[in-house]
Amino acid sequence: MTLATNLNLFDQFLVPKLLGMSLLAPAMLLTAMLIYNPQDRWLSNPLTTLQSWLIAKATKQIMTPVNKPGHKWSLMLISLLTMLILNNLLGLLPYTFTPTTQLSMNMALALPLWLATVLVGLRSKPASSLAHLLPEGTPTPLIPILILIETISLLIRPIALAVRLTANLTAGHLLMHLISTAALSLMTTSTLLAGLTLTILAMLILLEIAVAMIQAYVFTLLLSLYLQENV
């Protein structure tokens, strides 16, 4: 009974399939349809104005720590932020699937982007990029150890990006599933406790909306900081 309950609990994170084909890619492309496409008009409507204002503010916040040569990455980073926010929020809708709860997908996003920032640094200023592996003024006996530690910390960055995003979203979805199950069970025994549980669930959903946006912002901001180190 316990094994079956655990399987049902984690079934929500399985990639849905149709005729044996994974629906992960269509789920990601579906979120692109949620972005309002402005039309060629002299006057913009409030939705277009709000969307443009939010994109401008997000771009300013993300690109603030980056030097001017790295501003060419702004379009890619803001597109990544928008995609992550929409995919994170997608899982909060009923009968939907959250693509960003899959560690494989998050690694597929984090690894190439992190590697691109490293390669940019090695191509534009290799001496400065390699200097990050050895802090200035390091005693001679500690040089091999510090180089090893800094190399490991550099290589673990994409793993940390992917695991952070996956763990935060997965934990929130599991908690909502458990609380909603408890609320349904309490409806037959105690209406007061069931109402209290539903209130907690509503507050948790609001918190998860904030977490979905914050985690997307943190993912993109850390990439911009890695880019700053190399440009």
From TrEMBL:
It is a multi-pass membrane protein. Keywords: ATP synthesis, CF(0), Hydrogen ion transport, Ion transport, Membrane, Mitochondrion, Mitochondrion inner membrane, Transmembrane, Transmembrane helix, Transport. InterPro entries: ATP_synth_F0_asu (IPR000568), ATP_synth_F0_asu_AS (IPR023011), ATP_synth_F0_asu_bact/mt (IPR045083), F0_ATP_A_sf (IPR035908). GO terms for molecular function: proton-transporting ATP synthase activity, rotational mechanism. One of its GO terms (cellular component) is proton-transporting ATP synthase complex. It is found in: Mitochondrion inner membrane. The chain crosses the membrane at residues 18-36, 73-93, 105-122, 142-163, 175-194, 200-227. It catalyses: H(+)(in) = H(+)(out). PROSITE patterns: ATPASE_A. Belongs to the ATPase A chain family. Component of the ATP synthase complex composed at least of ATP5F1A/subunit alpha, ATP5F1B/subunit beta, ATP5MC1/subunit c (homooctomer), MT-ATP6/subunit a, MT-ATP8/subunit 8, ATP5ME/subunit e, ATP5MF/subunit f, ATP5MG/subunit g, ATP5MK/subunit k, ATP5MJ/subunit j, ATP5F1C/subunit gamma, ATP5F1D/subunit delta, ATP5F1E/subunit epsilon, ATP5PF/subunit F6, ATP5PB/subunit b, ATP5PD/subunit d, ATP5PO/subunit OSCP. This is ATP synthase subunit a. The lineage of its organism: Eukaryota, Metazoa, Chordata, Craniata, Vertebrata.
